[in-house]
């Protein structure tokens, strides 16, 4: 019996490897990961410096996403693999997505306003849902924090909605900047963890 077999206890399985350990085992170059994180962080700072251009960029990305989603929806409807049970409805949904994507490209300013309003509604809905879920679980640990987070999200959603159209042109850019900064910081942190493990 080997030492590995002798020390393996089926009742206490080995802990799951961390994300950094999995990445190190896969053998990625941590330098490329760190470079990607640095580029995203720089992009986040540029988004904060010029939120209007960042908002236009976010609108273009959203338009491309809606276009791809619409084309895939129509294709799956014709193939009968969308699972909706109504081919006509699926095709109509795909066409609406494609038309919405085209409208975002044709009139990006209106697209910024529409997307910002959707973001505000999303924050408001998510905040209300968090508060409702927290109220349904009395006595649970962390209930107060969940209610507070829900109220903050709902308040942010209301502020975004009331900011349209006066302050909408820069809000999407600020959201994009926050996303790039957080994602970039996460990528850099993961790269440094991989470096320590390699």
TrEMBL record:
Write the record's keywords in alphabetical order, separated by commas.
Answer: Membrane, Transmembrane, Transmembrane helix
Write out the coiled-coil annotation as residue ranges: none
Q: Is Transmembrane one of the keywords?
A: yes
Could you give one GO CC term from the UniProt record? plasma membrane
Which Pfam family, any one of them, does this sequence belong to? Answer: DUF308
Q: Which domain of life is it from?
A: Bacteria
Biased composition, class Basic and acidic residues, residue ranges: 1-15
Instruction: Kindly list the residue ranges recorded as spanning the membrane.
Output: 32-49, 55-76, 88-106, 112-133, 145-164, 170-194
Key word Transmembrane helix present: yes
State the residue spans of region: Disordered.
1-20
Q: Mind telling me which InterPro entries this protein's record contains?
A: Acid_resist_chaperone_HdeD, DUF308_memb
Cited PANTHER family: PROTEIN HDED (PTHR34989)
| Protein's name according to its UniProt entry | Acid-resistance membrane protein
Organism (species): Roseivivax marinus
